[in-house]
Amino acid sequence: MALLITSDCIACDICEPECPNEAIQAGDPYVIDPLRCTECVGHYDQPQCQQVCPVDCIPQDPDRIEDKPTLLARYQQLTGLSGY
């Protein structure tokens, strides 16, 4: 599943540079592009935006249920790489 940023976001800008897929955009609140979010599959073991968020406002998006193979396929499409 893709992640989303809730209205609890304090716009600290810590998450945006941590995203290896450039899926996070500034806004009110910040926004995660679900077509670019892989939950860091292929890059890291844990979603980096969740790891650095000081207010814990980046849950999984219940409207975008995706399994690990789907996220890995998106990673491969975005990067042109074939795996971890």
UniProtKB/TrEMBL annotation:
The keyword Transport applies. The keyword Metal-binding applies. Residues 1-29, 30-63 form the 4Fe-4S ferredoxin-type domain. Its cofactor is [4Fe-4S] cluster. It comes from the Bacteria. PROSITE patterns: 4FE4S_FER_1 (PS00198), 4FE4S_FER_2 (PS51379). Gene3D superfamilies: 3.30.70.20. Pfam families: Fer4. This is YfhL family 4Fe-4S dicluster ferredoxin. It comes from Natronospirillum operosum. The lineage of its organism: Bacteria, Pseudomonadati, Pseudomonadota, Gammaproteobacteria, Oceanospirillales.
